[in-house]
Amino acid sequence: MKVKKKTKYVHEGRYVAEVDVDLILTEDEWAPYLSVEDAERLDEVRKALQKEDFESASRHGRVFRLEPVKEP
Fold it and tell me: What does pTM read for this prediction?
Protein backbone atom coordinates (compact mmCIF):
# COMPACT_ATOMS: atom_id res chain seq x y z
CA MET A 1 0.00 0.00 0.00
CA LYS A 2 1.30 3.45 -0.95
CA VAL A 3 0.05 6.88 0.06
CA LYS A 4 0.07 9.90 -2.23
CA LYS A 5 -0.56 13.50 -1.16
CA LYS A 6 -3.34 15.19 -3.14
CA THR A 7 -5.21 18.48 -2.95
CA LYS A 8 -8.99 18.20 -3.11
CA TYR A 9 -11.26 21.14 -3.80
CA VAL A 10 -14.58 21.39 -1.98
CA HIS A 11 -16.94 23.71 -3.87
CA GLU A 12 -20.07 24.98 -2.18
CA GLY A 13 -21.98 27.97 -3.56
CA ARG A 14 -19.60 30.89 -4.04
CA TYR A 15 -16.88 29.31 -1.89
CA VAL A 16 -14.10 26.78 -2.44
CA ALA A 17 -11.83 25.16 0.11
CA GLU A 18 -8.48 23.66 -0.81
CA VAL A 19 -7.85 20.63 1.44
CA ASP A 20 -4.81 18.34 1.45
CA VAL A 21 -5.63 14.63 1.74
CA ASP A 22 -3.84 11.30 1.41
CA LEU A 23 -4.86 9.03 -1.45
CA ILE A 24 -4.38 5.38 -0.62
CA LEU A 25 -2.99 3.42 -3.54
CA THR A 26 -3.39 -0.36 -3.52
CA GLU A 27 -3.55 -3.13 -6.10
CA ASP A 28 -7.30 -3.67 -5.77
CA GLU A 29 -9.90 -2.26 -8.16
CA TRP A 30 -11.14 0.37 -5.67
CA ALA A 31 -7.86 2.27 -5.59
CA PRO A 32 -7.14 5.09 -5.23
CA TYR A 33 -9.35 5.97 -2.27
CA LEU A 34 -9.48 8.24 0.77
CA SER A 35 -9.19 7.23 4.39
CA VAL A 36 -12.37 7.50 6.44
CA GLU A 37 -10.83 10.40 8.36
CA ASP A 38 -10.05 12.37 5.20
CA ALA A 39 -13.54 11.72 3.78
CA GLU A 40 -15.13 12.92 7.03
CA ARG A 41 -12.88 15.99 7.03
CA LEU A 42 -14.03 16.88 3.49
CA ASP A 43 -17.65 16.49 4.65
CA GLU A 44 -16.98 18.80 7.62
CA VAL A 45 -15.48 21.41 5.30
CA ARG A 46 -18.49 21.19 2.95
CA LYS A 47 -20.93 21.66 5.85
CA ALA A 48 -18.91 24.60 7.18
CA LEU A 49 -18.94 26.28 3.75
CA GLN A 50 -22.71 25.76 3.51
CA LYS A 51 -23.10 27.62 6.83
CA GLU A 52 -20.50 30.21 5.79
CA ASP A 53 -18.49 29.16 8.86
CA PHE A 54 -15.13 30.11 7.40
CA GLU A 55 -13.27 29.75 10.69
CA SER A 56 -14.15 26.04 10.90
CA ALA A 57 -13.50 25.45 7.20
CA SER A 58 -10.13 27.19 7.32
CA ARG A 59 -8.90 24.80 10.05
CA HIS A 60 -8.66 22.15 7.34
CA GLY A 61 -7.39 24.20 4.41
CA ARG A 62 -7.46 27.47 2.52
CA VAL A 63 -10.85 29.01 1.75
CA PHE A 64 -11.62 31.15 -1.29
CA ARG A 65 -14.59 33.19 -2.45
CA LEU A 66 -15.43 32.87 -6.14
CA GLU A 67 -16.24 36.06 -8.00
CA PRO A 68 -17.12 36.51 -11.66
CA VAL A 69 -14.34 38.05 -13.72
CA LYS A 70 -16.82 39.84 -15.94
CA GLU A 71 -20.57 40.12 -15.86
CA PRO A 72 -22.36 39.42 -19.18
Answer: 0.87
